[in-house]
Amino acid sequence: MSIFDHWHPVLKSKDLNSKPVPIFLNGKQIVLFRDKEGLTAALDDTCPHRRMALSHGKVEDGRITCIYHGMSFDRNGKGQSPGTEDCKISATKWDCVESYNTIWIKSTDSFAAFPYFDVEDFRLMDSCHYIIHAPLELVLDNFTEVEHTPEVHAFLGYDSTRMKEVVVESETNEYNVRIKNTGPQKKLPLLFRYVLGLNKEDLFVDDWTTYFSPVYTVYDQYWIDSKSNTPRDTRLRIYVFFNPISDNKVQLFVFTYMKYPLFAHMGLNLLIKLAIKQILKIEILRDKKILEKVLDKNPNIAGMKLTRFDRSLGPNRKRIERIYRKTMPSESNQS
Ligand code: FES
Ligand SMILES: [Fe+2]
Questions:
Q1: Torsions phi, psi for 104 (to 5 deg)
Q2: Is the CB of 122 under 6 A from ligand 1?
Q3: Would you tell me how many other CB atoms lie within 10 Å of the CB of residue 107?
Q4: Domain 3-106 and domain 123-324 have a common topology
Q5: Ligand 1 atom 1: the closest Cα is on which residue?
Q6: Residue 89 CB–ligand 1 contact under 6 Å
Q7: pLDDT of residue 288
Q8: What residue spans of the chain are helical by DSSP H?
Q9: C-alpha of residue 113 to centroid of ligand 2, in Å
Q10: Do 20 and 54 meet the contact criterion of CB atoms below 8 Å apart?
Q11: 50 Cβ inside 6 Å of ligand 1
């Protein structure tokens, strides 16, 4: 097993049409194209003849054709040469599926399970992707602690003056790491609170679980009425996939779902959708900006002065090594 053996989301479906598209994953370049039936295909981008990037070529009759000497390959990688009839040539094929309006790939060597989206009764608000120039571990660190939210976030997170009240609970098992944070919400604009049926005294709950095949975190975010201690109807469920593009670059694929029964019948859906999309974009771009400013991006946590909010950092690293990269953990101090 290696990183390539897990299903990664690599391109939005709408971005793959008649032309081949190169994508990048963990230092590898892979070309995506659609065959005659419109089915997606993924091959190593390196032409097996003399290593031209197949993605510079074009798709003809459902086959990708190399711009250099005209060899063409079908969706299984089977090649044909225009000038040498008995030429036996093939390009390395990847498993490729289209799901959630996104194209996903993995190597053909594994039976890794496809990530499960538990979103019944939720509406899709947005799906988008971002590049962050930082190693996988640092990006995941940022997205699995809330201590940065008072300083860095604009909307989603905790009140900077009441961080001591935030309760952090954690639960880990062999395969995942769960953290639940509950505390006083940051100040939210009145209109936002009104539309979503929230009160300014509400407690914000950010309850997430990180999985490692591939590396992704599912965030369950909701608000609790601090007087009755009951959850509000509004609830966000966000899936964030952390694809390492190289040692120092991560691509996030973000799928945002939401439940808001209060206004489901009042034609405010579009407005809410646009607002949530914008809020998520603001928060992620703020995360990106702060992460790229970190001076020492060495992913090793030895020597860092960690707090009670950082309890996922060690367990995350251990599972990245054991499940995602499939090597033994090297740090004995990472629990
Ligand atoms: S390098 Fe692709 S056909 Fe020659
Ligand atoms: Fe953040």
A1: -120, 145
A2: no
A3: 18
A4: no
A5: 50
A6: no
A7: 98
A8: 136-143, 149-152, 190-196, 269-293, 313-319
A9: 28
A10: yes
A11: yes
Q: Is 52 in the pocket of ligand 1 (CB under 6 A)?
A: yes
Looking at the structure, give the CATH architecture of the domain made up of residues 3-106: 3-layer Sandwich (2.102)
What's the pLDDT band for 92 if we cut at 50, 70, 90?
very high
Domain boundaries, the chain: 3-106, 123-324
For the record, the structure tokens of 88 come out as 């036996």
Distance of CA 249 from the midpoint of ligand 2 (Å): 17
Report whether residue 140 contacts ligand 1, using a CB cutoff of 6 Å: no
Q: Is the CB of 66 under 6 A from ligand 1?
A: yes
Atom 4, ligand 1: residue with shortest CA distance: 69
Both tokens assigned to 288:
């990106």
Q: Which CATH architecture has domain 123-324?
A: Alpha-Beta Complex (3.90)
Q: What is the pTM of this model?
A: 0.94
Chain segment 170-189, per-residue pLDDT in tens: 999 999 999 999 999 999 88
* Residue from 47, 60, 64 whose mutation best tests the ligand 1 pocket (most atoms within 8 A of CB): 47
C-alpha 109/C-alpha 253 separation (Å) is 24
Confidence of residue 264 (pLDDT cuts 50, 70, 90): low
Residues in the chain, total: 335
Handedness of CA 320, 322, 324, 326 (dihedral sign): positive
